[in-house]
Specification:
globular; about 950 residues; alpha/beta; 48 strands
């Protein structure tokens, strides 16, 4: 299988092997090795299957250390199809691919790994197509495959939007498959008996799957129906997303009318082609009701006379009542929507309409239910330049009012109960106000200035909008829309209790005179408050009162289905705060906690970021963090303190302080760390420095490279010299104390993974890794990749990534360095720059344990051909390059890349290789190791990082 992560390949403790069934009675042993379930799009399903919370047509059996010793146990014989006695395969045998998964397990007899065998009730080729099915990549599925997907796959996918769109497009192109799947009158007469037997075993309820499929398609897909080059209609779902996948399909070829919930079409086209739409939408295979939106445009005068009751619209629309579509029984309703031809000032003054010259737009709609017209609804009127009592009186019965470019010199009172009011580019002069006597479902004030009294709308009473950038937007109890509250550049007066039903709250540049109270009890709630000044009180699962200044920001976001994400920036905390267990991800930036206070992290927190903070932070609650990231404050003189014991899988540290005692106290609070990441924000992207330089120079403790005992042959990394500040002895002692404080702590001595980011690792630094006996993965750019650094690295290493390291120019030094690498008996994967192998002969000195080599393309400076040395046996060889080395004409490696590979194969056994891949940007080119021709291209990145 395609590998996307080298780290997963080397370090994963559990390897999943998907064993696929054949649709032949003989069966076969098609299998796929999975190192990360996330890549399968079935991780959630398989995890629940293992936990026993899901029962479905899949089976998982574990094959662990005991089976490694005894061979395949009898208890697993039912799982291991057609099991035969297999001898252990070793690297002394020439074996490029293992014909069965049993061979693979026995050949990879690493007792540190466990294998879990998953019986997949379909073919491998089908799974490969499912894996690559997206809205941008449409695969072709047969009827048998689609039926299998619905019965055994669709509910098992973590994300099935791409799969749903693929099936949708396949059904559009295959009318026979469509009717066979959905038409209850069709029989499975052309399905092979064996295949039919397989499908009927433990199949899920097809009606439930079809309902889910219909729901996803309607939520994510919008299709445009055309007549020649013109789009004449579109179909979509009643609850479609704001951003959908779209495609243009000729109306005469459209086959999916039964699937969609909404049809939108112009009045004239529906009138002229009613029979065509009847044929396309009459089928109701999925009990799917249809809403038809018919759009029409009238003269503005006709719209206005209809709204005032002076013209009856029903006789003009009698043709709608006679549509054949009503006979299908599918139509839930038909909504006839009327707008004017264009927005312009009306000159209509007849029929007693007052001041209609200020009305520049109006619209309405009429519903037809069971072919019977209902009362006019959704009436909207747009006014320009005027908002006075004369105009207001004619608005009786109007649902929504829009006003633009109005300047009020005196108070104006909205007396009627409008559903929606929008004001654009309006100004209310000083000493005047707009008053709402009733609450609206939607209120929008945009680029509007002045005083507004809202009568408790969304919990607010008095709001002053300051400038032409001001905005106010409330939406409460609006159909199919979450309740929202958004304020920009406003002054809020008085005490405010924000309506608890508001699900999305946004304040930007808001000044609060008294207090605003916000209840946070719904995990779906979002809060975004920034550049706001005043007191805000939060209750619910965030129980705290905070004073905001103009730099403070607070954000709460949903995180998954059951938790929230909390972010706080530039805030001074004066009382003890304990965050509630609803927060899974917490981010604190420049937060200052008073000495007598403290901030207690909740037990359920899994991801924590603390950047440039001051005070005491209690992290002892969580059983184990997934990740903690800490950026120490450079400028602060106050102490930053963590309270433990702290357990985390990943600890990321930026700009570690230069005080050895503080570093020691910091690490002593940690009980468990699996991965340590040390980084620094670079001042100059063109130059990197080692850790010692960052620990000393950023705090004005300077020392030359020679003084701190870190030899370098690269002049570009020379350290600044300032001997007047520290003597040579003091500098050496300071560096030793700092590195000892980091790598001498108990928690660090047990780490399994170490990663340097934006920081070089010096030879001096390497010495402190010697006692990290559990270290399995090291990713660092070495200041000098040579003997002096390699001899100190622990033998426990399994993955060494030293890309972008400085390489010795002397050929003899490279040979010595290569020889030292032989002393790593556990090393399975090496990522290195091609410059390290100036002569391909150096490949001979790699340890026999290496399974994967990732090397960047580089010209060989020296070339010797030795036939008296054994070739190394790699399973996988990856060659990367920044430039394109695939010939645009032949789509095969160019001459330079072919020569590079041929020279490497003088020392690498090409017959043993399972995979030969060329990497460029976000593409992987699978090559045949014998012919060097491209066999497959994957548009996926190969990640060599942790």
């Amino acid at each position: 299988m395609l590998i996307t992560s080298l780290y997963d390949y080397v370090t994963v403790a559990v390897v999943y092997i998907f064993v696929f069934q054949s649709w032949t009675e003989e069966g076969n042993n098609e299998y796929m090795v999975i190192y990360n379930l996330r890549e399968t799009n079935m991780m959630e399903f398989l995890s629940s299957l293992e936990a026993g919370t899901t029962s479905f047509n899949y089976n998982i059996q574990e094959y662990g250390q005991k089976q490694h010793i005894l061979g395949i146990s009898e208890c697993a014989e039912d799982v291991l199809l057609n099991s035969t006695a297999v001898q252990f395969l070793t690297k002394n045998q020439t074996k490029r691919n293992y014909s069965s998964y049993r061979d693979y397990i026995l050949a990879n007899n690493d007792t540190s790994k466990r294998f879990k065998i998953v019986n997949m009730p379909f073919k491998k080729s089908l799974f490969e197509k499912i894996m690559t099915s997206t809205s941008d990549n449409i695969n072709t599925f047969s009827l048998e495959e689609m039926r299998c997907i619905f019965q055994k796959v669709f509910f098992c996918l973590d994300r099935n939007e791409g799969m749903a769109y693929n099936i949708c497009m396949n059904l559009q192109d295959d009318q026979q498959a469509l009717t066979s799947l959905f038409d209850p009158n069709e029989e499975l007469r052309f399905i092979e008996p064996y295949y039919l037997t397989q499908l009927q075993r433990n199949q899920c309820n097809s009606l439930i799957v079809f309902e889910k499929f219909k729901e996803i398609v309607n939520h994510t897909t919008e299709l445009y129906l055309t007549d020649g080059p013109t789009c004449v209609a579109k179909v979509y779902g009643e609850k479609k997303k704001a951003i959908t996948v779209g495609k243009y399909i000729p109306l005469k070829e459209f086959n999916l009318g039964f699937l969609f919930e909404c049809l939108e079409v112009t009045s004239s086209y529906l009138f002229d082609n009613a029979s065509e739409f009847y044929e396309k939408f009459r089928h109701d295979y999925l009990n799917n009701k249809l809403i038809i939106f018919v759009n029409d445009r009238w003269p503005l005068t006709s719209v206005l006379t209809t709204l005032t009751g002076d013209m009856f619209v029903t006789p003009a629309l009698s043709w709608i009542e006679r549509l054949d579509l009503w006979e299908s029984g599918r139509i839930k309703r038909l909504t006839y929507r009327v707008k004017p031809y264009k927005s312009y000032l009306s000159s209509c003054t007849e029929s007693g309409v007052v001041s209609t010259n200020n009305i520049f737009y109006a619209s309405f709609s009429i519903d037809f239910v069971k072919s019977v017209a209902q009362p006019i609804k959704n009436t909207v009127v747009y006014l320009r330049n005027v908002l006075d009592i004369g105009v207001y009186k004619v608005m009786d019965g109007v649902d929504s009012l829009r006003c633009k470019e109005v300047e009020l010199q005196s108070d104006f009172v909205f007396e009627n109960d409008f559903k929606s009011v929008h004001l654009y580019l309006c100004t209310v002069k000083k000493e005047s106000a707009i008053i709402f006597q009733n609450k609206c479902q939607e209120l929008k004030l945009c680029q509007t200035i002045g005083q507004f009294y809202l009568s408790g709308m969304a919990g607010f009473n008095s709001i002053y909008l300051k400038s032409d950038k001001s905005k106010l937007f409330f939406r409460i109890n609006y159909p199919r829309s979450p309740n929202r509250c958004k304020l920009t550049e406003a002054l809020v007066k008085g005490t405010v209790n924000v309506d608890q039903s508001i699900q999305a709250i946004t304040f930007y540049y808001v000044e609060v005179t008294d207090n605003i109270s916000i209840i946070v009890e719904d995990k779906r709630k979002t809060v975004d408050i920034s550049q706001t000044k005043g007191n805000l009180k939060f209750s619910g699962f965030l129980n705290v009162k905070l004073h905001f200044n103009w730099q403070t920001s607070l954000k709460i976001r949903p995180y998954g289905n059951s938790f929230s994400k909390f972010s706080l920036k530039k805030c001074h905390i004066t009382e003890q705060i304990k965050l509630m267990d609803e927060f899974r991800w917490i981010k604190l930036l420049m937060v200052k906690v008073d000495d007598h206070s403290g901030l207690i992290i909740n037990n359920n927190c899994r991801k924590l970021t603390i950047s440039a903070c001051e005070g005491i932070f209690d992290l002892s609650g969580p059983k184990c963090f997934d990740e903690i990231e800490i950026d120490f404050s450079i400028a602060s003189t106050s102490k930053f303190t963590l309270k433990g014991p702290i357990r985390t899988n990943i600890l990321v540290l930026y700009d570690i302080p230069n005080n050895a005692a503080d570093i020691s106290d910091f690490f002593n609070e940690f009980e468990t760390i699996n991965r340590l990441v040390i980084g620094s924000y670079r001042l100059d992207n063109s130059q990197l420095f080692n850790l010692e330089y960052h620990l000393t120079n950023r705090y004005k403790i300077y020392g030359s490279q020679e003084n701190i005992g870190c030899e370098s042959t690269n002049n570009s990394f020379e350290q600044p010299i300032k001997s007047t500040i520290k003597t040579v002895r003091e500098s050496n002692q300071a560096v030793d104390e700092l590195l000892t404080a980091i790598f001498g702590s108990y928690a660090i001595s047990k780490i399994k993974e170490l990663h340097y980011h934006g920081v070089l690792m010096s030879n001096c630094n390497c010495k402190y890794l010697k006692n990290l006996h559990n270290l399995q993965t090291l990713q660092a750019s070495l200041e000098t990749a040579g003997k002096e650094s390699f001899i100190y690295l622990p033998e426990s290493l399994k993955l060494l990534n030293m890309s972008n390291s400085s390489v010795a120019s002397d050929d003899q030094d490279q040979i010595i360095a290569s020889c030292v690498l032989k002393n790593f008996p556990n090393l399975k994967a090496l990522v290195i720059d091609g410059a390290f192998f100036s002569d391909p002969f150096h490949l001979c000195f790699l340890p026999h344990s290496i399974d994967v080599l990732v090397v960047s393309y580089s010209e060989f400076r020296n070339e010797r051909i030795r036939t008296d040395v054994p070739k190394i046996k790699l399973s996988k060889l990856y060659v990367s390059a920044l430039r394109d080395m695939i010939d645009s004409g032949t789509q095969n490696p160019n001459e330079q890349l072919r020569n590079f590979l041929q020279k490497m194969f003088n020392y690498i056994d090409r017959d043993y290789l399972q995979s030969l891949v060329f990497l460029m940007h976000q593409r992987q080119y699978q090559l045949n190791s014998s012919t060097l021709c491209v066999t497959r291209v994957y548009h996926q990145e190969f990640d060599v990082n942790m």
